[in-house]
Amino acid sequence: MAAVEAKRSPHFVLFPFLAHGHVPVFLRLAGLLRALRPGLEVTLVSTPRLLGSLTLPPASPPVRLHALPFVPADHGLPPGADSLADVQIHQFITFFTASESLRPAFEKFVSGIGSPVCIVADAFFGWTAEVARARGASHAVFLPGGAFGNAVFFSVWEHLPHALTAADEFPLPDFPDVVLHRTQIPRFILSATGADPWTAFFRRVIASCRKTDALLVNTVRELEPSGLDMLRRSFGVQPWPIGPVLAEPTAPSSDSRDDASIIRWLDTHPPRSVLYISFGSQNSISADQMMELALGLEASGRPFLWALRPPLGFDAKDVFRPEWLPAGFEERTARANVGLLARGWAPQMRILSHPSTGAFLSHCGWNSVLESLSRGVPLIGWPLGAEQFFNANLAVEWGVCVELARGNLESSAVESRAVVEAERTVMGDTAKGDEMRRVVAAIARTMEAAWEAPGGSAAESLEGFLRCVEP
Fold first, then answer.
1. Which of 151, 206, 416, 430 shows the smallest number of beta carbons within 10 Å?
2. Do 193 and 50 sit in the same domain of this protein?
3. What whole-number distance in Å separates Cα of residue 220 and Cα of residue 378?
4. 325 and 206 within one domain
5. pLDDT confidence of 191, banded at 50, 70, 90?
6. Whether residue 215 sits in one domain with residue 203
7. pLDDT tens-digit profile of 391-411?
8. How far apart are CA 180 and CA 172, in angstroms?
9. How confident is the model at residue 6 (pLDDT cuts 50, 70, 90)?
10. Same domain, yes or no, for 349 and 292?
């Protein structure tokens, strides 16, 4: 007599893109899956160097790690460039296409798993949907970004709407209610012809993602109903909003300023008085923009904490040069205790959680947006690339962001007086500032409630997704 087979959750294979903002979010997703299904088998797949840089939270059984061989130099990339942060902007497309070389090793790994499998991959690895079909596995694309930002970003790559008109403003062909301005189009899309490597890569990504069984989205159902509907219409599958999925705070690297000294500096300032500035780990503003921003910060007189990276066009690992800032800027602001420059890494979540932090001047990468709003900190937006322009647009619509500038092209000017005005609007005792703080506090409560049990919308979505992929 045949035994009745017990219901068993599949082995989850998580495959984040090779970028510092993506891997920790996938690792956090592993923890959330385990919280709903204790003992679930989860393997995180990446390159040896990226996996070696991870600090895994304690878990039983532990999250497994599987390394796929990747030799950047074989693709014309610098040795050791396992992450997008390791290359300069002009090398991004080379890195993107090189990442597709991971497919044979990934196929071999998945084929060797004996139990049922569910692959959860980054959109950049949308080709894993084809691997899943060949294996008879379930598949989901996990978007670490937001619903609206991703829907618009994919639409722009698919249709290149700015190339269809000479006008500065134009609607999206598939979402005509969304009207964009030419200044919101990232630099590599502006120069795209439809026959270039960038367009070819992203159209491959979009076509592959449309073969998935489900979309997991790092957003909150109550905040992005229209963006989620846009994704559903674009990809033809149900999106599961499971956000906010916030990465665990990371430890500082050995050459970073001691984060304890940063917190001690914040401790010396009154509540909501400090402007935190960071443009993320993969981009920077130009040298001229950096100079003008510094002049504006000094002119405002408000305390600021700036996570500095070399300007656009320079290696992120270069030593920061004094000539990129006004003469004596660091010394003057430090002497007056109004400025602190943190070169490279900064403990962002600890900074945003500190009561003296009053606003965040950000590139509006989605992780940064979620982290800021979850801590009740309003934004001053300066989007630089990818879907950041559309994230900033959404945050402005929500009433939690004032946009200071767009992009880091030579034509993207910012004046010091605009910096002063943006700070005054967001951080000052103004009607606009008061309203922004009220709205961002409400959004923070909504984000917290999404993972509260029972009945939180994110917890319900992840449970619904699990039930769909369990045999």
1. 430
2. yes
3. 18
4. no
5. very high
6. yes
7. 999 999 999 999 999 987 666
8. 8
9. very low
10. yes
CATH of the domain at 53: 3.40.50.2000
Band of pLDDT at residue 387, cut at 50, 70 and 90: very high
CA dist., res. 228 & res. 223, Å (int): 10
In terms of C-beta density within 10 A (0-12 exposed, 13-18 middle, 19 or more buried), how is residue 250 classed?
middle
Report the mean per-residue pLDDT for the chain: 93
Q: Provide the whole-model pTM.
A: 0.94
Nearest-5° Cα angle at 187, 392 to 383: 20
Overall number of domains in the chain: 2
3-state SS of the chain: helix, strand, coil percent to 5?
A: 45, 15, 40
Residue 200 CB-density burial (10 A; 0-12 exposed, 13-18 middle, 19+ buried): middle
- Tokens 């992005």 locate to 224
Domain that holds residue 464: 11-243+451-469
Residues 368-385: tens digit of each pLDDT:
999 999 999 999 999 999
Answer yes or no: is 146 within a domain.
Answer: yes
1 found inside a domain: no
Answer yes or no: is 442 within a domain: yes
Residue 161 contacts residue 171 (beta carbons within 8 Å): yes
Residue pair 288/371 in contact by the 8 Å Cβ criterion: no
42-46 and 239-241 beta bridge pairing: unpaired
pLDDT, residue 249, reads: 63
